[in-house]
């Protein structure tokens, strides 16, 4: 039954369960009661920081509001020492900077919950492709923090002039012609290495956590 509800219906039900008016809920998250009304009437949908604030006040997870998953974990508050990290696309990651936060992400958002100490600009990325096999399989998820400067051997997300970001291993190559040169290498030898003295590369962030998911056969 919960999954058949709309986003607005779930917001209204949780609000009424907590005996909150639209005006009081709005004031708690810095919005007007009419904004809550528009959510509940499915005229607009919460996203970004508003979605996080709404889930906190309704004492449920953002996933519950967006998708109606009715597991117990989705209707409980996150632990005090945990935070939610937005899962973004490779295209979004390509435009990501250290100044970006969850409010930079439009539309529906999926999240990972973690108790890591991360900057406000941290994000998660679902691995696609085979360039990082065997350590990183397609469908695995990595958490990236743009505030962490990579050291040799770290895995990073970077932009190399293409529309999408890339995920590779970071290897500094020293100073060449007065510039610090590094290369980004795949773990799969079938894919090419990219060098910063041959292609303009911008490091977006450093991997902080790798979540590997077992596949069913």
From TrEMBL:
It comes from Symbiopectobacterium purcellii. Pfam families: HTH_3 (PF01381), Peptidase_S24 (PF00717). This is Helix-turn-helix domain-containing protein. InterPro entries: Cro/C1-type_HTH, Lambda_DNA-bd_dom_sf, LexA-like, LexA/Signal_pep-like_sf, Peptidase_S24_S26A/B/C. Transmembrane segments: none annotated. Residues 11-65 form the HTH cro/C1-type domain. The keyword Repeat does not apply. Keywords: DNA-binding, Transcription, Transcription regulation. The keyword Transcription applies.
